[in-house]
Amino acid sequence: MSISRQEFARRRKQLMAMMEPNSIAILPAAPEKVRSRDTEYNFRQDSDFYYLTGFVEPESVLVLIPGRDHGEFVLFCRERDREKETWNGYRAGPEGACERFGADDAFPIDDIDDILPGLIEGRERVYYAMGKDADFDHQVMVWVNAIRAQVRTGAIPPGEFLDLDHFLHDMRLYKSAAEVRVMKRAGEISGNAHARAMRSCKPGMYEYQLEAEIQHEFAMNGARFPAYNTIVGGGDNGCILHYVDNCDQLKDGDLVLIDAGCEYEYYAADITRTFPVNGKFSKEQKALYELTLKAQEATIAEIKPGNHWNAPHEASVRVITEGLVELGLLLGDVDKLIEDEAYKEFYMHRVAHWLGIDVHDVGDYRVGGEWRVLEPGMCMTVEPGIYVAPDNAGVDAKWRGIGIRIEDDVLITKDGCEILTGNAPKTVDEIEALMAASR
Ligand code: GLY
Ligand code: MN
Ligand code: MN
C-alpha cells in the first residue's frame, strides 16, 4: 500500500496550475545529518519533496517549470556509480528518475550549477521555501546571480521571489483517498503497538523496554521508524509533555503515559495511551482518566465540517475545567476559571494539530485572521490531557504526579469525523481487561 506514481503526478500538476505564469519552482531534498563523526542519522526525505515526487534519495533537487516545452518536471539527482553503490546503496540515477519516477528530464546533481541557471533564465518568478534552509537560500541566489552576470548578453534574470509553502501546504492539508488508506494503516499499526505495550508492561520494567515493544510492533509491520521520538513516561515523568529520556524504572501503583506513532509510507500516526503499570487504576487515577476520556469524547463531537478550528479545543477546556472543579482540584466558578485560564495549570497544551506526512503537519490554523473552518479530508489529532505536577502544593497530595493524555487521530468526513486509531484500547475496562488477560 503506497501512493501511486499517478497521484504524485496529479499533485505536481495541481501545484503547477496554481503557480503564476512564466514561473519556476525549486525544492531541495532534505540534507543528510551527522550523528557522530562519520556516522549519519538515517536519511528521511523532506516532506514537501516527497509529497511531489515519491523520490527518497538525498542530494536531489526538484524543479517544476509549468509550460516548459521539453518537460515540466525536472529532477537533479546522484548519478549511478558502481563503486559508490557497492558501499552505500542503490541510486536511481537520472535514467531511473525518468523511468521510475516520471521525471520529464533528469540531470546529475553535480551538473546543477551549469544547468539550473539556464532553466531559471527567462522566467519572471521563482518559487521556493524562503528562509527554511540558509544554505539553500544562498544557493538560489548564486544561481540567480549567474544569470544577472549575463544580462549584457541578453539574459533575463527573474524579478520576483515567492514563497512556495503557501500553496503546497494548503494542498497537503486535504488528504486523498490513497493518503487516508495509508494513514489508516499507520493508525492501525500504532494502535496495535500500544496494545502490545499494555500486554507486556510489568512493574520493574524500564521505560525504554516498553519503547522497544512499541518499536518492535512498528518495524514488524513495515513501519521501520516512529514518526517522532517515542515518549514513555512512568509516574511523575508522565507530567513532562515531551519526555523522551525513557530511562526510568516503572513502579507498581504508577501510571505510564506512552505517546508513540509510527511513520508508515511517509505518513504519521500520533497516539497517546495512559495505563496503570500494574494493570489496575487507583481511585484517583481512574477519576482523572475518565475525565480526560470524557473531554476527548466531547472534543470529538465538535469535529465536523463547518465548525472552526478552536471549537473542539473549547469543548475540551470546558469539560476538563468542570471536572476539575467537581473533583476539587480547581475552586470557583467554571466560566470564570475558563476566562482566567486557570485550567492551564493542569491542561497547558492544545487539543489538536494537523496530521499527515509530518506529525505536526502543515496547513494554516487561521485564515484571514479567523480560525479555519474544518472541512472533509483534513486529518487531525484529538489529545486532551490532565497533568498534576508532583510539586503542586495547591492540591491534595493524592492527586500529585498523575499525568494523563489520551490521543487519537481523526479524518474529517462529510458529517463528522472518523477515528483512524480505534484499535488502541481506551476505556478503563478495556485496558484493565487486556492487562489482566496477559498477566
Ligand atoms: N507526539 C507529539 C504530539 O502529540 O503532538
Ligand atoms: Mn502525540
Ligand atoms: Mn499529537
What does this structure look like?
This protein has 439 residues and is of the alpha+beta class. It contains 13 helices and 21 strands. The chain has helices spanning 5-18, 47-53, 82-88, 93-101, 112-120, 134-148, 165-173, 177-200, 207-220, 283-301, 310-327, 334-339, 428-437, and strands spanning 23-28, 34-36, 39-40, 61-64, 73-77, 105-108, 125-128, 160-163, 225-226, 231-234, 255-260, 262-264, 267-268, 271-276, 366-367, 370-371, 379-382, 385-387, 403-405, 408-412, 417-419. The strands form seven sheets. It has a six-stranded mixed beta sheet with strand order 6-5-4-1-7-8, with helices on both faces. Strands 9-12-13 form a three-stranded antiparallel beta sheet. It is elongated. The two termini are 35 Å apart. The mean pLDDT is 97. Bound molecules: glycine and manganese (II) ion (2 copies). Glycine (GLY) binds at residues 228, 259, 270, 353, 359, 383, 407.
Provide a compact summary of the structure.
With 439 residues, this protein is α+β, with helices and mostly antiparallel strands.
Which terms summarize this structure?
439 residues; alpha+beta; Creatine Amidinohydrolase, Chain A, domain 1; Creatine Amidinohydrolase; 2 domains; six-stranded mixed beta sheet; three-stranded antiparallel beta sheet; 21 strands; 37% helix; 18% strand; binds glycine; binds manganese (II) ion
